[in-house]
Write a structure and sequence with these properties.
about 140 residues, four-stranded antiparallel sheet, elongated
Length: about 140
């Protein structure tokens, strides 16, 4: 009988591959040309915008911004939309933000919440959430 012991490698479960991950911008507060009331056209109301993006593929493999969706571009795009033209409804603004985000081919879906602040003294905010998904 052979006295050597043959060790079998331990059975390991495969690591799950990342199919998607999420990026977000939370509670971005800015003034926007938005609203149907005359006073909103004189003094742009404050909005709070939250965006959550479902991303395709793996997160960046290299610790480098060139492999990632830059949050700065998302924020800059939202800021540009806020002042580009007057928009009546928060739903319209949310839709424009979602479409802006979906212009990046790595974004599979966008959930955008737009809240108007300072509307009612007894409510923190009023607004809408809109979700768009890339056509499959």
């Amino acid at each position: 009988m052979d006295s050597r012991v043959t060790a079998e490698p331990p059975v390991t479960k495969p690591v799950a591959e990342t199919a998607r991950y999420k990026l977000f911008v939370r509670n971005l507060v800015l003034a926007a040309k938005i609203g149907v009331h005359p006073h909103e056209k004189v003094r742009p109301p404050r909005l709070r915008v939250t965006v959550e993006l479902d991303m395709a593929g793996d997160p960046p493999r290299h610790d480098d911004l060139t492999d990632a969706l830059d949050y700065e571009r998302v924020v800059a795009g939202i800021r540009e939309l806020a002042v580009a033209q007057h928009i009546n409804l928060v739903e319209t603004f949310a839709d424009l933000v979602a479409r802006l985000c979906l212009a990046n081919p790595r974004v599979l879906a966008a959930s955008v919440t737009v809240e108007k602040l300072d509307v009612y003294t007894n409510a923190e905010s009023v607004g809408a959430t809109l979700e768009r998904r890339r056509a499959e």
